[in-house]
Amino acid sequence: MESNSVSSEQCPCLERNQSVKLTRPKERVGMEAEGQRRISGRDICWSVVFIVAWNIIILLYQKLWFRPQRIRSVLLQQGINGPKPFFPFGNTSDMQQINQTPHISLEALDEWTSCIFPHFHSWKQSYGPLFLYATGTKQNLYVEIPELIKSIGMHKSLDLGRPSYLTKTLKPLLGNGIIRSNGLNWAFQRNLLAPEFFQSKIKNWMDIMEESTTTIIKKWENHIAESGGGTVELEIDGDIKALTADVISKACFGSTYAQGNLIFAKLAAMQKALSKPSILFGFVNLRFLPTKENKELWKLKQEVETMILKMIKDREAVNQKSSTYGNQKDLLQIILDGAASATTDTSGKGVLGPGYNINQLILDMCKNIYFAASESTALAITWTLFLLALYPEWQQRVRSEIMETYCNGLPHSFHDMDKLRKLKALTMVIQESLRLYGPAVTNSREVFTETKLGKHVLPRGIIMWFFMPSLHRDPDNWGPHAKEFRPERFADGVSGACKYPQAYIPFGLGSRICIGQNFALLQIKEALCLLLSNFSFSVSPNYCHCPVNIMLLTPKYGMRLLVSKVHRTGL
């Protein structure tokens, strides 16, 4: 019987067709599954991108909009107002547009105060002594109310500190040293350094102060002799900086000014580069970009740290060979000893914890001491001599007091601290000079935790600013003659000079008051005693009165005075 089936041999394509029929559904299933896998992978990828982007948007919304608005709403509810900010730059455009040409005339002696930060002056006239403004997303509170400043000064918690953005911006100059650090780092440095500036210890540096001042006296005497023994015009600010630099180098670091000369010069260059309002007030911080200016700043930072590090290594090498410095215990040795135990201290006074860069801590503390203890003291002496040159009756009164107290026994008479305390006229002049021409132009605090100060509740993140030239000229606190040079207002001390003594803050306020205050005042007194007992000063006709802010109050065109020799026998 003939079969109807067809064998595979007879039709070889049948096998192929059957194979196709059998395998094609499997391939289709595999392709569909692979397609599903590809689609799922794309979906997952896009989902991740969406989630990340959404989180970034939320974070940006929180930082750029929600937090600033919350801070503003808290203060607005308390009646604190200010110029309207514009997102995302705040009031920076207004700040840059409000300009005022600085005065350079002695006839307009006090007008310079409205030229340094003219937006403060303008907004104060519109909104009063307490107002709110924004620089980018940062919310700032201008404070010129003595009662509030008193509350801030009495607040001892670490909840108030230096603005964190300034710590980053000024890092090349100050690192994380005591001037700009916060929290436990600041507490550790203060506990380590503050005792070294107690009156009982700094009096041991008086011989160094006298020696450095005598060097300047001899230099000026040579200039006078070369001019024929009469009056000579000198630009004194450079020599005064040399004087204070020499003192801080010898007293605190055991080196001479020749060794510290380059350090001060490079710190001054860094100070000038970082003193622009756009940097200090946090408009835009582009310090990470490799611009020509930033590269120069990085280079200066590296050079300063290399020189200080060499000084530290030289001291460590000497310590290994002898115990001379270990017994001497100058400030550098105190820093080295304290830093060595910084991570193991169990006293609870500012333990830094493991992993902290001790070498960087030492460098930062040294830079802060070089900058703060030298530059600000030099400017205080310079401005005081300017005011005494401008008011010769007070100059003669102070000189007569010095001569009567020391009975022509200068120099080598300053170890008697009682005599220094008797110089009442000199003390009043210094206090008045610090009021009108204190080196510090601004002071600031950031609120790290919501804090109640006086009748105000200040939200976390607000940055408070104090403008000293205006604060120290407030007629409500200092009386109708607040802008005038009247040292007699301090006849009964600071408490008798004004209504709110807590608003007199040439050295800062509260727990963060300058630890070198006693050191600076002692050096100012001793330098002025020696200079005034040897020279008479008057303002040069070539002097241009134009104080500017280069992180500190500085005479823009130098301090030119006419200097002549004082003959003590005629007194």
TrEMBL record:
Q: What is the protein name for this chain?
A: Cytochrome P450
Q: What is the species of this protein?
A: Psophocarpus tetragonolobus (Winged bean)
The signal peptide stretch is none
PANTHER family named among the record's database cross-references: CYTOCHROME P450 FAMILY MEMBER, CYTOCHROME P450 FAMILY PROTEIN
Q: Which UniProt keywords apply?
A: Heme, Iron, Membrane, Metal-binding, Monooxygenase, Oxidoreductase, Transmembrane, Transmembrane helix
MF terms (GO), sorted A to Z: heme binding; iron ion binding; monooxygenase activity; oxidoreductase activity, acting on paired donors, with incorporation or reduction of molecular oxygen
Q: Record's InterPro entries? A: Cyt_P450, Cyt_P450_CS, Cyt_P450_E_grp-I, Cyt_P450_sf, Cytochrome_P450_Monooxygen
Q: Does the keyword Transport apply?
A: no
Binding annotation for heme: C514
